[in-house]
């Protein structure tokens, strides 16, 4: 009996030990089941009540199901189609709480008349906070005003403009033109195929690093691999832009909290971007900081000691100076490939203004005298703006000039890409690439920035506009008068864009390059 009792006691103790060891697992399972039940109940509640922004209209259904992709290659082309059909040139995508407009009067309302009611807003800042932080493109109020005043003062200084002009001329003479020359076809070999988009991104990255940080990454050496930072920056830009397409912010916020999917990739990419920015500021400190150079960062370091703030400024410089310039130049040469008569007119003007010396890079003043070049660049950006749209968030209830009611917290977007394709804005030939529309008696004549908001408008107009135009025009002049560029398998009439904060062509822009005979202007001789 004693042995039997002992065996029963041991068995009971073993059962108790087993039960205790299972208790955490059982508790975890019950917790997971409870969480799933709560989540399911919440989803059912949402489905029953339908939040006020929910809509089953044709536009929202097409957005949520992506059925628009059956007819359009790009979301921006679908939006342009909707805005053309709208009598007010304004549409509301209710599931995104997003009002989009291509109406110049409404753009004026947002960017000038009611500027205070349409800041970037906290929702926008949250979407880009991991990448841009407190940089100028992601803040409002005093933080924005401080950076803007400092940047505007520095960018307007003759010393910085001369420094920037010298950097661009050096990159053209020492890297871009020799690179294109080495890719030229000879006899019947067909020549190399270059991805011109990649070339311009590398060129613009080298230029902005020299101008903004006083450092030379040497990216335009095609034998060099693209730096880990550039890849990380592109990935972070694409994934940050993707956040804005989610119908609910909670979707990407949950992914971010659990560090899964796109948000995990974004975090890894931003970590590399942070490392690059830290190295840039470390190098500037090593070289003497604010007193060490003519670059923009050195000048900012004289007023800012917060390293995290400097990191955000570095990233903003790269976004402004590389991505937008490269985007505009890529689109320009794609259009030029389809319109050789425009290239011929550019060569005629360059020959007239700067002469035929192929080694003479036009000065800043000569570039300003090239009105047709200026018109062709503006016309290209009308059709292919580097930043296709810009969003603000209504700080309070409002009514747009076209009668559209805007509730507090609504995202309001002016769509520059769509505006360039509106007959109501540009006439029946709006889809044509025609630089002459900007000229009167051979002189460039600008239009209202609210009709052409490529550089934004009002108090938030781009402070680096003149510097960017100088750089792009210098590239156009140097390349067009020395080379013929032929796009391969691409057309400006049906582009395909990759997701990102700036317009980027999916698959790049493959081209063949041919060296033009020296001293020959106008059309190339037949081949």
Automatic annotation (TrEMBL):
Signal peptide limits: none
Cofactors demanded by this protein: heme
Positions of heme binding: 462
GO molecular function: heme binding; iron ion binding; monooxygenase activity; oxidoreductase activity, acting on paired donors, with incorporation or reduction of molecular oxygen
Keywords annotated in UniProt: Heme, Iron, Membrane, Metal-binding, Oxidoreductase, Transmembrane, Transmembrane helix
Protein family per UniProt: Belongs to the cytochrome P450 family.
Full protein name: Cytochrome P450
Protein species of origin: Triticum aestivum
Lineage of origin: Eukaryota, Viridiplantae, Streptophyta, Embryophyta, Tracheophyta
């Amino acid at each position: 009996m004693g042995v039997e009792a002992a065996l029963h006691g041991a068995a009971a103790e073993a059962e108790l030990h087993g039960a205790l060891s299972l208790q955490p697992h059982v508790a975890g399972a019950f917790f997971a089941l409870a969480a799933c039940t709560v989540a399911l109940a919440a989803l059912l509640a949402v489905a029953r009540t339908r939040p006020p922004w929910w809509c089953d209209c044709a536009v929202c259904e097409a957005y949520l199901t992506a059925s628009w992709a059956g007819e359009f290659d790009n979301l921006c082309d679908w939006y342009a189609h909707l805005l053309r059909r709208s009598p007010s040139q304004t549409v509301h995508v209710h599931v995104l709480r997003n009002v989009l407009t291509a109406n110049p009067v409404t753009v004026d309302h947002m960017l000038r008349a009611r500027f205070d009611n349409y800041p970037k807003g906290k929702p926008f800042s949250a979407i880009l906070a991991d990448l841009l932080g407190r940089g100028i493109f992601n803040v409002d109020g005093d933080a924005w005003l401080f950076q803007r005043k400092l940047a505007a003062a520095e960018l307007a200084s003759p010393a910085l403009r001369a420094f920037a002009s010298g950097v661009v001329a050096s990159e053209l003479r020492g890297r871009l033109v020799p690179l294109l020359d080495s890719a030229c076809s000879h006899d019947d070999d067909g020549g190399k195929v270059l991805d011109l988009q990649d070339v311009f991104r590398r060129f613009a990255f080298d230029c902005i690093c020299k101008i903004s940080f006083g450092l030379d990454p040497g990216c335009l050496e095609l034998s060099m691999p693209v730096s880990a930072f550039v890849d990380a920056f592109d990935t972070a830009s694409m994934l940050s832009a993707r956040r804005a397409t989610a119908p609910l912010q909670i979707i990407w916020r949950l992914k971010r909290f659990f560090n899964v999917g796109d948000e995990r990739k974004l975090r890894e990419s931003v970590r590399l971007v942070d490392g690059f920015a830290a190295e840039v500021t470390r190098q500037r400190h090593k070289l003497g900081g604010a007193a060490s150079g003519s670059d923009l960062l050195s000048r900012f370091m004289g007023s800012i000691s917060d390293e995290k703030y400097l990191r955000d400024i570095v990233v903003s410089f790269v976004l402004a100076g590389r991505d937008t310039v490269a985007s505009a130049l890529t689109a320009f040469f794609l259009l030029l490939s389809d319109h050789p008569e425009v290239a011929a007119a550019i060569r005629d003007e360059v020959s007239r203004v700067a002469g035929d010396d192929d080694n003479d890079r036009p000065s800043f003043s000569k570039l300003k005298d090239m009105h047709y070049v200026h018109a062709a660049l503006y016309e290209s950006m009308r059709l292919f703006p580097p930043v296709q749209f810009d969003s603000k968030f209504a700080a309070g209830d409002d009514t747009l000039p076209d009668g559209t009611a805007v509730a507090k917290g609504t995202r309001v977007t002016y769509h520059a890409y769509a505006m360039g394709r509106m007959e109501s804005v540009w006439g029946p030939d709006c889809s044509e690439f025609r630089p002459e529309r900007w000229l009167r008696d051979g002189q460039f004549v600008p239009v209202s920035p609210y009709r052409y908001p490529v550089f934004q408008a009002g108090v938030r107009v781009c402070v680096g506009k003149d510097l960017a135009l100088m750089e792009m025009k210098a590239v156009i002049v140097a390349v067009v008068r020395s080379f013929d560029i032929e796009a391969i398998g691409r057309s400006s009439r049906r582009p395909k864009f990759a997701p990102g904060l700036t317009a980027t062509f999916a698959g790049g822009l493959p081209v063949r390059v041919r060296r033009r005979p020296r001293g020959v202007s106008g059309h190339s001789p037949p081949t």
